[in-house]
Every structure is written in structure tokens, then in C-alpha cells.
From TrEMBL:
<dbReference type="InterPro" id="IPR011059">
    <property type="entry name" value="Metal-dep_hydrolase_composite"/>
</dbReference>
<dbReference type="GO" id="GO:0016810">
    <property type="term" value="F:hydrolase activity, acting on carbon-nitrogen (but not peptide) bonds"/>
</dbReference>
<dbReference type="InterPro" id="IPR032466">
    <property type="entry name" value="Metal_Hydrolase"/>
</dbReference>
<protein>
    <recommendedName>
        <fullName>Amidohydrolase 3 domain-containing protein</fullName>
    </recommendedName>
</protein>
<dbReference type="InterPro" id="IPR013108">
    <property type="entry name" value="Amidohydro_3"/>
</dbReference>
<feature type="domain" description="Amidohydrolase 3">
    <location>
        <begin position="46"/>
        <end position="485"/>
    </location>
</feature>
<dbReference type="Pfam" id="PF07969">
    <property type="entry name" value="Amidohydro_3"/>
</dbReference>
Length: 490
């Protein structure tokens, strides 16, 4: 492995120029600018005053879904069923022998008209069509796709939660993804300064990720998860959280992942209060308890006994209460994934129980309007990042890609500004500082010191001093993983 010398480097919040020498995958030396210029046998690069930071992590991705969505019909800009149907109708006409039309990215929470099986059938004819919601918690299928996938819906043509996840698994099993497809996704992540991800894909990750690394998908560190149906197999292999799974040292065993409730856009997040417009007596008036609490406790106990931590999806405030209760009951550590709506009294419990809140700030920008409708009167405690931080809770930021793009700078910008596309900040009292957001997006704080692992990035602006509205489009000039460039634009 060759040594690399970066000259004229700044560090976050410090305008003094320095040189940084990287050797054998570590930061070997840091000195005032010019003092390391005599080093021989090194690849020297002028950073031209750019800022050096530890590499960024995306702490919540669905990597296969993120990779697949590039091949799917893009529905993310649609705002109504009518707009979706227009795109799908055109795609069905141009299907050219493809097995089916698969779209991704609709959000139906505020549609003026509901999804309809008849309308989708009329738009697509005999071409099977499967449309995946942006939050991955719902699918809209025409009759041809239902016949092909052996599922049945009501008159809406939609399936939600567990039934929707089953459809996604069938779609994934027929996807024609190559190592090159995964390499491209990893390269794109590196171009945003990403050195590592926590992958919550529902798959045999302990087998598949080492295979991907061996086939050349080696520009990211990956912590993999195990869903309930894969937990017994992981335990049988003797895997514990933190165990290395590949010879290159890039893949590690991560947590058990359990989805306890649904999502806001699908109106299935499990809440203490009912959703407006849902009739009294409806079994899901307050959302969905996707995994009963007793079953959750059994799963977490099995994981704890096997040395595996837990990462539990909880979006609604009732789900978060029950998950916190279960962690407390078991005396177990781990993360609560999303933690979108919280009762005030539950906020300090995260710190008291030693739990991490793994949050996705960009979801607040995507969901602000639907939250104002379905969580009316409660949005002051939605996406409550500052409340969690003030309570001493450890934060981790992620994208939930493909629900939002695999780009940590979008998450940092959303966390800091609570704004996007020129709109007024939404609950700005819940904004956190740039330093807090970046520290929640790394594994090594913001300092770069001698002896550190050389997972590093060079960015054009100092994020601590630049206009915060520049953060979303932060140019990344280089990304380095263990001393080797995975992205280079100097």
C-alpha cells in the first residue's frame, strides 16, 4: 500500500494549513504545512486549503433497494394518483417485452384521490405493474401483477406492511443485479464522502456481503443486520455483533432488526392517538403493531443471549414507548431506528437506558406536510433532534435509502436548517448544530489525529464555518478508505 501526502489541508474549525501523511492505512503524521514535503516514496496531492474530515457513515440503508431503485420507474416527483397513472401508462406502452413495470417513490398520504385497482388496470392493461411507495411500506399492484405474484388486494389495489414486504421480497428474488450494479452504488456513496453503511436489507446479509466484497464491491465498510427470520441462522453460525465476516475486514456483524410499526405516509405508524378520518372501531385506527411486544421481547432475548445487539424500528409514539419499555425490561442496549414521534416523557429515557436514536432528518423535510395533517398538534415532538440531544441521547444520522438519497450531507443539512427548497424552517427549535450533526454522521468525531484509521474525506468548505445552506450540496473532492482513494476529484 503506497503512502499518500496531503498538503495544504485545513481541519474543521481551524484555518491553519497542515500536511497530513497517510501510511499503512493510518494517519502517520500531521505537521504544519511544508514540514512533510521532504517525505519520499509518497503520492503527493495538494488539497488547496480544503477541509479534512473523518469519513461519513450512513447509519440506516437498504442497500439492495437503493441499488434496485435505479432500474425502476421514478415516481418520486408525483403528487397524485393521476400523475402516477400517467407515468405508468406510458411505461406500460413502452414495456417492449419486459416482464413487468416496477415503479418506486409514490407518496399517497396527501393525494386528492385514493389509489384504485380499476384505475391502475385501465392505465396498464395486461402488463403487470408493481408500484412501491417511497417509504417501502406499501405497494400498489394491478390485476396482472397480483396474478403473477399470487397475491390479492381490495379495491384499492394496495398492500401494506407485512404483505407489502412479502411482495418486495418476491421482486428482489427476480432482480437481475450484478456486482457492477452494487459497485456503482458504492462508488456513488463514496462520491458523497461515505466510508461505511449500516445495511438493514431483509436478506441473508451475512453470506451475501462477503461475497460482494470478494467480487469487487470493496469501497465501503458495511455493518450487516439480521431480520427475525434470519436470526436463528446467524446464531447457529455463532456470529456476534462486531465479528468480522470477510478477509478484507470490511464487513462486520451488526444488530438484529425488527420492525415494530409502520410509517407515517402509510398511516400505519403506531401512535397513542388515532389518525384523523379513520372510523371509530377500525383495528388500525392508531396504526399497526407489526410485531407484538411479547414476540419482540422473545426475539431480543434470543439476540441478547447470542451477543447480538438490537436495532428496533419505531416511528409512532406508542411504538417508541413500547420499544423503550422492552429495552428496559431486558436490560439490553442498541438503537431505536427512526424515533420520529415521541412523548415528552420518553425522550430522556433513551439516555437513561443507554440507547442510541438512529434518525433520518431528511424524512422531516419529506414528511412535514403529511405530519401537519396526520400528527396535527403533535409535530413539536416529531423528529425532535434537539430535544433528544439536550437530553444527552446519542444520535446517529442515516438516510433510510432509498426512502431518501444515500447522501449524508442531505441529512446534515436537514438536521441543521430544518428546511429545503427555499421553504421556511419547520420547527426550527428542533434543529441541531453542524458539529452535532456531523459527529452523528461519523464514527470518529470531527478531529483527525495521528494514529487514526485513514477513513478520510476532503471537502471544499469548512462545514463548521460555511453558510449552512451550502451543506446540502457540499462538494467532496476525495474520499479515502483505509488509506486508499475510493473517490478522487482533486
Amino acid at each position: 500500500m503506497s503512502a499518500v501526502l496531503l498538503t495544504d489541508v485545513r481541519t474543521a474549525g481551524d484555518a491553519h494549513p497542515r500536511d497530513v501523511l497517510v501510511r499503512n492505512g493510518e494517519v502517520s503524521a500531521i505537521a504544519p504545512a511544508g514540514e512533510l514535503a521532504s517525505e519520499r516514496g509518497v503520492d503527493q496531492h495538494d488539497a488547496a486549503g480544503r477541509t479534512l474530515l473523518p469519513g461519513l457513515w450512513d447509519h440506516h440503508v437498504h442497500f439492495t433497494q437503493w441499488t434496485i431503485q435505479r432500474q425502476r420507474l421514478d415516481l418520486t416527483a408525483t403528487e397524485s394518483a393521476r400523475e402516477v397513472l400517467a407515468l405508468v401508462s406510458e411505461a406500460a406502452r413502452d414495456a417492449s417485452g419486459r416482464r413487468r413495470v416496477v415503479g418506486f417513490g409514490f407518496r399517497d398520504g396527501l393525494w386528492p384521490e385514493p389509489a384504485s385497482l380499476d384505475a391502475l388496470d385501465q392505465a396498464t392493461g395486461p402488463v403487470p405493474a408493481v408500484l412501491v411507495s417511497a417509504d417501502l411500506h406499501a405497494v400498489w399492484l394491478n390485476s396482472a401483477a397480483q396474478h403473477e405474484l399470487c397475491v390479492r388486494t381490495d379495491a384499492s389495489g394496495t398492500l401494506r406492511e407485512t404483505e407489502a414486504f412479502a411482495v418486495l421480497e418476491k421482486l428482489d428474488s427476480t432482480a437481475d443485479l450484478t456486482s457492477e450494479d452494487y459497485q456503482q452504488s458504492a462508488a456513488d456513496a463514496a462520491a458523497h464522502g461515505v466510508v461505511g453503511v449500516v445495511d438493514f436489507e431483509n436478506d441473508d446479509n451475512a453470506t451475501l456481503w462477503p461475497q460482494r466484497v470478494a467480487s469487487g464491491v470493496n469501497s465501503l465498510r458495511v455493518e450487516i443486520s439480521a431480520w427475525p427470520d434470519k436470526l436463528a441462522g446467524v446464531i447457529a453460525r455463532g456470529l456476534k455483533t462486531g465479528d468480522l465476516l470477510d478477509p478484507q475486514g470490511l464487513v462486520r456483524m451488526g444488530p438484529l432488526k425488527v420492525i415494530v410499526d409502520g410509517s407515517l405516509n402509510t398511516r400505519t405508524a403506531w401512535c397513542w392517538d388515532p389518525y384523523p378520518g379513520i372510523p371509530t372501531g377500525s383495528p388500525h385506527r392508531c396504526g399497526v403493531e407489526a410485531v407484538p411486544v411479547s414476540e419482540l421481547a422473545d426475539l431480543m432475548t434470543d439476540a441478547k443471549n447470542a451477543g447480538i445487539v438490537a436495532a428496533i424500528h419505531a416511528i409512532g409514539d406508542r411504538a417508541n414507548t413500547e420499544v423503550l419499555n422492552t429495552f428496559e425490561q431486558l436490560g439490553m442496549t442498541g438503537t431505536v431506528e427512526h424515533a420520529q414521534l415521541l412523548r415528552d416523557q420518553d425522550v430522556p429515557r433513551f439516555a437513561e437506558l443507554g440507547l442510541t436514536a438512529s434518525v433520518q432528518p431528511e424524512h422531516a423535510m419529506d414528511d412535514r406536510d403529511v405530519a401537519d395533517v396526520y400528527w396535527e398538534g403533535r409535530t413539536g415532538r416529531a423528529f425532535a433532534l434537539q430535544s433528544l440531544h439536550q437530553a444527552g441521547v446519542r444520535l446517529r444520522l442515516g438516510s433510510d435509502a432509498p426512502v431518501s438519497p444515500l447522501n449524508p450531507w442531505a441529512q446534515v443539512a436537514a438536521a441543521v436548517t430544518r428546511s429545503r427548497e427555499g421553504r421556511a424552517p419547520w420547527h426550527p427549535e428542533q434543529a441541531i448544530t453542524v458539529q452535532t450533526a456531523l459527529e452523528a454522521s461519523t464514527r470518529a468525531g470531527l478531529k483527525v489525529e495521528q494514529g487514526d484509521l485513514a477513513d478520510l474525506i476532503l471537502v471544499d468548505y469548512d462545514p463548521l464555518t460555511c453558510d449552512p445552506y451550502l451543506l446540502r450540496s457540499m462538494p467532496v473532492a476525495a474520499t479515502m478508505l483505509a488509506g486508499s482513494f475510493t473517490h478522487f476529484a482533486l
